[in-house]
Amino acid sequence: MTREHAAAAPLKRTPLYEQHQALGARMVEFGGWEMPLQYSSILEEHRAVRMQAGLFDVSHMGEFQIEGPEALPFLQYLVPNDVGRLAINQALYTTLCLPTGGVIDDLLVYRLEAERYMVVVNAANIAKDLAWFQEQARRFSAVQIIDRSQETALLALQGPAAQAILQPLTPVDLAAIRYYRCLPGEVAGLACLISRTGYTGEDGFELYCEAPKAPLLWEHLLAAGKEHGLVPAGLGARDTLRLEAGYCLYGHELTEQTNPLEAGLAWTIKFEKGDFIGREALLRVREQGVARKLIGLEMLERRVPRGGYTIYDSDHDGASGSTGDNQRAIGVVTSGAPSPTLNKSIGMGYVEASRAVPEQLVQVEIGNRRLAARLVALPFYKRRK
Amino acid sequence: MASLNHPADLKYSKTDEWVRVEGDQATIGITDYAQDQLGDVVYVEIPLAPGQQLSREQKFGDIESVKATSELVAPVSGEIVQINERLKDHPELVNEQPYGEGWMLVVKLSNPAELDDLMTADQYIAYLEGR
């Protein structure tokens, strides 16, 4: 059986820690934080988000405010995506790259005012990212970086019922907020930034508010959502939901040893916008072609592929159990889980580019056996609009 | 842990299996604590058949939950008499009834003295609290 190991440093807690305790959440360590893994069951919470709605505490995420006359040129230099195309109250997804093209983190950039931006980073990377931002900012004279992570809470209301749940609580016309847009406004009388974004593959909103107000916001949302089937949902469901939606998770699909091109994120790289950190390295990768590609896989058996498992070339019949000498390792699984929506075991992984073809049969080594799987295009799940 | 159930008439292993002894046979499953830790069980694989010998501490299968894969370890030695085939299509029985329909194996004990090395319910609860 598994055993949870106590971390060396004391774990950080979000402003909603007491709410999680009261709801009987199973807490786990995640990126230095003590976070809810599940309240009832990962499968139930996952299905609630696909069918009705779920409420996630993701206050562990980091928020940096970037402002000043040089905020835009600074951000344009730091990330491969084109921050210059953002209107006020619009967001984009991007990676943050090293000069090698390796990924430091993946993040959201919001333009809140003409010269004020908010960058949202992964919890485990807050210190690393902040140091990187500050180091790079030395080349700019008119940009200020303020870490707002401590005083900012973030709740994600996700699922097809999200708008119906949230609308009665706010004077803001939610229908007017399109995907990857945001508006400041009150929710249950509390000042929030209401953003139509998420990490589940469903419609939904992410609500940024001041940390001390988060418990009240959480209670109001849960109460308002009750008749719509809203449930609190933990990191367990967040992970299975994002996997079905084909979203990368830092530390799994994205690391400093992977580049955004092989991760299927070419759409976030705007070479034509001008210079940015990692541009030369990424141009070279684009010219030479990627050596490996992130791709989906579906097990033909019920065992679950987990991060770190080896992917092998298959015999042409693709049957499980065969271990012919002609088989070689062609890749590695980065994430895997049973998919509640597809009712089969799924995963993502990096596979040699020449082999990373949908419908290709492969084998995944699980324990001491090699079990048949089929490579598939990402995502596994796309909601009907 | 207060809401978990560890019946007094069973024996427990440090790897969180339970044993119910009836005559010279023993039924084996995983404890309420174990199923609670695992969360939703989605697959139980026991690649063995009746008639095969199982030794104490030998791995007899794998259990997959949404989050993780764990090994199933034999708490006693014996010849496999029966395997719970229902778990193939209904792995959730392990969560719902860990001591009932969620049982895994029945073995004919080959060394009943091994039972003395297992814990009572009280000892197991104390063991869980200490870890």
Q: How would you describe the overall organization of this protein?
A:
The complex is a heterodimer of chains A (385) and B (131). Chain A folds into 3 domains: 17-58 and 151-244, Gyrase A, domain 2 (2-Layer Sandwich); 62-147, Aminomethyltransferase beta-barrel domains (Alpha-Beta Plaits), CATH 3.30.70.1400; 291-376, Elongation Factor Tu (Ef-tu), domain 3 (Beta Barrel), CATH 2.40.30.110. Chain A has helices at residues 17-22, 42-51, 71-78, 126-137, 162-166, 214-225, 235-244, 279-288; strands spanning 26-30, 33-38, 53-57, 62-67, 90-97, 103-113, 116-121, 144-147, 152-158, 182-187, 190-195, 204-210, 230-232, 292-299, 310-313, 329-339, 344-352, 361-366, 369-376. In chain A, 19% of the residues lie in helices and 33% in strands. Chain A is globular and about 65 Å long. Chain A has a 6-stranded mixed β-sheet, sandwiched between helices. Chain A has a 6-stranded antiparallel β-barrel with strand order 14-17-16-15-18-19. A 5-stranded antiparallel β-sheet of chain A has the order 5-6-7-4-8, with helices on one face. Chain B has a single domain (11-129), classed as RNA polymerase II/Efflux pump adaptor protein, barrel-sandwich hybrid domain (OB fold (Dihydrolipoamide Acetyltransferase, E2P), Beta Barrel). Helix content of chain B is 18%, strand content 34%. Chain B has a 6-stranded antiparallel β-sheet. A 3-stranded antiparallel β-sheet of chain B has the order 4-6-7. Chains A and B meet through loops of A and helix 1 and strand 4 of B.
